[in-house]
């Protein structure tokens, strides 16, 4: 187990492609960090630089107080779980788990003990003699986890480990990974683009965009107080409504708009903070036309068009909401739950 | 095509049977001929039923050959052919596996250039380079030796090319997982890449073995000592050597025996292919 220190890390691919730049991050010993961001933002590249699978072109990386820029992956004492598992197809599950230990010169007895323990922990002991092709996707995923766990490394690196599983299994494995990490307290770096994984797994969330860090913080901090317009739109599902001044600064809202911080020309409204009844506290009101009602049990949504711009606007509603599609309604959002931004700088204004 | 057309069926089967007969008949004749006495052939008609001399003929061929014409017993020639074919096969596999490994997994200067050089030699069969190769082998004093028989035929663009194509289909993550697991290049090659290539190795083994076994021109050129005669060229020597009529019954026995080892290799290796084909591991 070890802390990871990332200082000014950057990656320039041949052809002057800057995949990752200027990453600074201190990961405490035992911390679970989740990296999220849109496709192509450099999550995998960053993770692979930490793993040693990609050379570091700028900055310094230390694992457990030791600069490891030049070390081979095996010398960094990390373990990695790949998106497609990358199990050795010609080896049995047992050998898959044992291979890394064997290469490190563990005794046969140690290997056996560790493999058996890990297999028991992940409930893959019935399959130890099978080859990966004779396993289901979920079982393969467990074996891939096992191959990382069995080595008891200083850090786990996981690159979208659950994205090949079906929805139900993904939830189950997500919970298991979280419990496992809590128990083992191994420093972990987890890449995902799944909202739920991002919000639920990590101690801290790192939001990446175009190779740079947008925001670092606990998932709830990032959710409740996004620092940039990008984070506001990216985190949360359905995503935050972003409304321009041209739409909300109408005559009804004149009083409220004055109370917004200076420089605010865009506001963000989470779909679950929009209400039908006029609140007592200061608020913005929105004139809209109902486009579509989508009842879906716990997560029913109403899709609206703001008038006069016809900008799309989503709100979360009760399943039994009675609204007529095509009708006009007024909805409200208290000022206290709004996220004011400046569009040019992309930053929060309060 | 599922349609049950009686005449169509009969026609198709007749054609197929004719085709099979065309291929099988010469082999049948060779086997039959090897069971008759030498004289039967001289009478000008080819016998179609087995004779009684099978055991005698094969024993003579194996143990004596046609000693009067200076050809060694077939058993020695079979052995020579086997050694040559095995040396060529194993040498080709070893070299091409290693060079494909280098080309796919290492970044060295002029990598692409070397790949193309290897690729271009695909167009140069032994026969094209035979005169210069002979000169080199003669200068190195390798005439009349197993080294001379096999080494010049070992370099293989075909196998290198095929292994390269196969290695490129092995997912990159496999290499990365191995690196994280502490396997260096050689361990990766030995523990991961080789076992994954086993079907390809088996297939190429068969192809290369038959290629080596069937070498004719090269052994004919570089062996003058009967001790190193191989079976395929030996058949030719048996036909032309000496001044009597060719001993057809012995020649045919030799031909049958010359055809056996490649068939055995195929039968043996076939288990590996079938295994590889049914349990695709990737
Ligand atoms: N070998 C390479 N050469 C050049 N550019 C590369 C290379 N690998 C990745 N990139 C570029 O670097 C950027 C980041 O890629 P990366 O794989 O880290 O994205 P990602 O965040 O993991 O995306 P995804 O969520 O789709 O996996 C991309 O723009 C990609 O095109
Ligand atoms: Mg990725």
Q: Can you characterise this structure?
A:
The complex is a heterodimer of chains A (350) and B (282). Chain A is of the alpha+beta class and 350 residues long. Chain A has helices at 43-51, 93-103, 108-121, 137-149, 167-184, 195-201, 219-224, 229-234, 245-248, 254-259, and strands at residues 4-13, 17-27, 32-36, 58-63, 66-67, 78-81, 155-159, 187-191, 204-209, 212-217, 241-244, 266-269, 283-294, 300-306, 311-317, 328-334, 339-341. In chain A, α2 (93-103) packs across α3 and α2 runs parallel beside α4 (137-149). In chain B, 30% of the residues are buried. With 282 residues, chain B is mostly helical. Chain B contains 14 helices and no strands. Classes of the chains: A alpha+beta (350), B mainly alpha (282). The interface between A and B is medium-sized, with 24 and 21 residues. The complex binds adenosine-5'-triphosphate and magnesium ion. Magnesium ion binds at residues 43-44 of chain A.
Question: Helices, strands, pairings?
Answer:
The complex is a heterodimer of chains A (350) and B (282).
Chain A: E1 4-13, E2 17-27, E3 32-36, H1 43-51, E4 58-63, E5 66-67, E6 78-81, H2 93-103, H3 108-121, H4 137-149, E7 155-159, H5 167-184, E8 187-191, H6 195-201, E9 204-209, E10 212-217, H7 219-224, H8 229-234, E11 241-244, H9 245-248, H10 254-259, E12 266-269, E13 283-294, E14 300-306, E15 311-317, E16 328-334, E17 339-341
Parallel strand pairs in A: 3-8, 3-9, 6-7, 7-8
Antiparallel strand pairs in A: 1-2, 1-4, 4-5, 9-10, 11-12, 12-17, 13-14, 13-16, 14-15
Chain B: H1 6-33, H2 38-42, H3 54-63, H4 74-105, H5 111-120, H6 130-139, H7 146-150, H8 157-169, H9 172-180, H10 185-196, H11 198-213, H12 217-222, H13 231-240, H14 248-278
Bound molecules: adenosine-5'-triphosphate and magnesium ion.
């Amino acid at each position: 187990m070890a802390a990871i220190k990332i200082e000014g890390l950057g990656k320039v691919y041949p052809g002057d492609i800057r995949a990752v730049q200027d990453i600074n991050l201190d990961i405490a010993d035992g911390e679970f960090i989740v990296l999220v961001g849109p496709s192509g933002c450099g999550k995998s590249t960053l993770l692979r630089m930490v793993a040693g699978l990609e050379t570091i072109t700028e900055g310094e990386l230390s694992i457990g107080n030791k600069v490891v820029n030049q070390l081979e992956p095996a010398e960094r004492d990390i373990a990695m779980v790949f998106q497609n598992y990358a199990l050795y197809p010609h080896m049995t599950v047992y050998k898959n788990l044992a291979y890394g230990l064997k290469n490190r010169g563990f005794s046969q007895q140690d290997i056996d003990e560790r493999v058996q323990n890990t297999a028991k922990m992940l409930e893959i002991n019935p399959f130890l003699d099978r080859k990966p092709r004779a396993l289901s996707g979920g079982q393969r995923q467990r074996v891939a986890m096992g191959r990382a766990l069995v080595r008891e490394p200083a850090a786990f690196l996981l690159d979208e480990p659950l994205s090949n599983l079906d929805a139900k299994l993904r939830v189950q494995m997500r919970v298991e990974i979280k419990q496992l990490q809590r128990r083992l307290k191994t420093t972990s770096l987890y890449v995902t683009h799944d909202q739920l994984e991002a919000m639920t797994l990590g101690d801290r969330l790192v939001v990446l965009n175009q190779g740079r860090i947008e925001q670092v913080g606990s998932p709830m901090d990032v959710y409740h107080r996004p620092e940039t317009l990008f984070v506001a739109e990216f985190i949360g599902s359905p995503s935050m409504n972003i409304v321009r001044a041209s739409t909300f600064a109408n005559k009804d809202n004149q009083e409220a708009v004055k109370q917004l911080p200076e420089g605010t020309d865009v506001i963000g409204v989470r779909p679950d903070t929009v209400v039908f009844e006029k609140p007592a506290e200061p608020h913005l009101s929105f004139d809209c036309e109902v486009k579509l009602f989508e009842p879906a049990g716990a997560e029913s949504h109403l899709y609206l068009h703001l008038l006069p711009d016809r900008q799309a606007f989503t709100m979360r509603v009760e399943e039994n909401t009675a609204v007529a599609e095509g009708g006009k309604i007024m909805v409200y959002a208290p000022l206290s739950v709004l996220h004011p931004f400046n569009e040019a700088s992309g930053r929060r204004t309060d | 095509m599922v349609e049950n057309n009686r005449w169509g069926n009969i026609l198709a089967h007749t054609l197929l049977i004719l085709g099979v007969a065309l291929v099988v008949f010469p082999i049948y004749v060779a086997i039959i001929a090897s069971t008759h006495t030498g004289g039967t052939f001289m009478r000008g008609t080819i016998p179609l039923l087995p004779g009684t001399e099978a055991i005698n003929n094969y024993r003579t061929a194996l143990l004596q050959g046609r000693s009067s014409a200076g050809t060694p017993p077939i058993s020695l020639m079979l052995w020579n052919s086997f050694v040559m074919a095995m040396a060529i096969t194993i040498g080709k596999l070893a070299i091409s596996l290693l060079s494909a490994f280098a080309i796919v997994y290492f970044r060295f200067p002029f990598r692409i250039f070397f790949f193309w050089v290897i690729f271009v030699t695909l167009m140069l069969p032994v026969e094209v380079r035979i005169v210069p190769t002979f000169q080199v082998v003669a200068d190195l004093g390798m005439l009349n030796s197993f080294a001379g028989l096999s080494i010049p035929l070992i370099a293989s663009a075909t196998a290198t090319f095929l292994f390269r194509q196969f290695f490129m289909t092995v997912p990159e993550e496999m290499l990365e997982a191995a690196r994280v697991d502490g396997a260096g290049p050689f361990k990766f090659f030995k523990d991961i890449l080789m076992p994954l290539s086993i079907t390809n190795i088996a297939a190429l083994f068969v192809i290369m073995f038959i290629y080596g076994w069937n070498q004719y021109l090269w052994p004919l050129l570089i062996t003058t000592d009967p001790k190193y005669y191989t079976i395929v060229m030996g058949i030719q020597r048996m036909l032309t050597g000496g001044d009597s009529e060719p001993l057809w019954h012995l020649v045919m026995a030799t031909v049958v025996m010359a055809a056996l080892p490649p068939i055995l290799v195929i039968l043996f290796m076939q288990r590996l292919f079938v295994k590889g084909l049914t349990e695709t591991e990737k």
